[in-house]
Amino acid sequence: MTLLSAAALILSGCATITRGSEDVLVVNSQPQGAQVQLSNGMSCTSTPCSFKLPRRSNLEIAVSKKGCREVKTNVTHKTADSGAAGVAGNVLVGGIIGLAVDASTGASQDLVPNPVEVTLQCR
């Protein structure tokens, strides 16, 4: 029973298990109904829209609508508050393997900005 409790404690600190390696990025525009093109090839035909992406993504986003000036913005990642807690849990319990897994999957990261809010200049 003690071994089971120790395993549960180690895994509870692992951000990969508690947060996963993907995040949902939301893109909104004013006015709505704009097309979105991500530098990784993903797209949507009408805002608002969302994309499931790896937490360690670095992307350029282009938002366009007929009669409006295209807006480009960047999305990157940063260590999340809850992701940092998962990493700290790994350090406290001595989970070197958990640290390596979290680092390789990006589970301790959040996409920023999220949501992406774009105001288009239209004629």
UniProtKB/TrEMBL annotation:
Residue span, PEGA domain: 24-78
The protein's name in its UniProt record: PEGA domain-containing protein
Organism listed in the record: Seohaeicola saemankumensis
